[in-house]
Amino acid sequence: MILSNTVEGVLFDIDDTLVDTRGAFAHAMNVIAGKYLPGVGVAEQPKVLELWRADPSGYYRAYTRGEMTAREQRMARANQLHETFGGRNLSDDDFEVWDAEFMAAFRAGWKPFDESRTVIDTLRSRGYRVGALTNAGLALQTEKMRVCGLSDVDVLVTLDTFGVGKPDPRVFQEATRLLGTEPGVTAYVGDEPDIDALAALGAGLGAGIWVDRPGARRGGAHTEDPAAVARAGISTITSLTELL
Ligand SMILES: [Mg+2]
């Protein structure tokens, strides 16, 4: 059984766990490539998405450590993308326009995974407390959860709470406090083992679960070795329905 009998609360990551963020980024990157990267053909488009998600320079993680703003990390990644795929360097003013186009396309692509709604409802009907703990900002995630029809979770803890995100143990402890369950009887479910399940165990949570959807790994420096993850005591699932 994935959720042991002692578990009373389940905290979910949002991006690529409850929400198909990769799909939304795919849509956004196709729009961006069409406008800014004329040398990229249809066959090459998946590589644009791959680089965006791999974030090889770790700009997004620098943001989650409080070292860059959300805008700074996006601009750095936009220019890295342009440099790699033959686009022009974006000035501050250029980036204003780029970012508006990117965010509009990203938002238009927001969708929950097919099973997210059912899994949340079923867990609740079985008496579990259910919350979300995410490494993005409050305004963005509140809107994303609303658009995806998931805004009724009991708790939403974001990067704004402490100005830093996972893997900092404080965010896991604060999320369980707000959820009203002791850390030892709370499970965390997320798609990035190092900052999700492994960090949750490190923060004293009772269980860490890796949702390893087919074809969704990021590659690069991300911790995605199933054997190493299993040795650390993490359970792996390929769909949230396996929680049930
Ligand atoms: Mg995620």
The multimeric state of the shown protein is single chain
Task: Give the overall silhouette.
Answer: elongated
Give the cofactors and ligands. Answer: magnesium ion
- CATH architecture assignment of the largest domain: 3-Layer(aba) Sandwich
Placed side by side, the strands forming the largest sheet appear as: 3-2-1-4-5-6
Most strands sheet: 6 strands, parallel
Strand content: 5-15%
In total, how many domains does the architecture comprise? 2
Mean pLDDT: 96
According to CATH, what is the class of the largest domain?
A: Alpha Beta
How many β-strand stretches?
6
N-to-C order of helices and strands: EHHHHHHEHEHEHEHE
Radius of gyration: 18 Å
Report, as a whole number of angstroms, the end-to-end distance.
Answer: 9 Å
| Helical residue percent band | 40-55%
Q: pLDDT below 50 for ≥5 consecutive residues: which ranges?
A: none
Please identify which CATH superfamily of the largest domain we are dealing with: HAD superfamily/HAD-like
Structural class by helix and strand composition: alpha/beta
What's the gist of this structure?
This protein folds into 2 domains: 9-20 and 111-243, Rossmann fold (3-Layer(aba) Sandwich); 22-108.
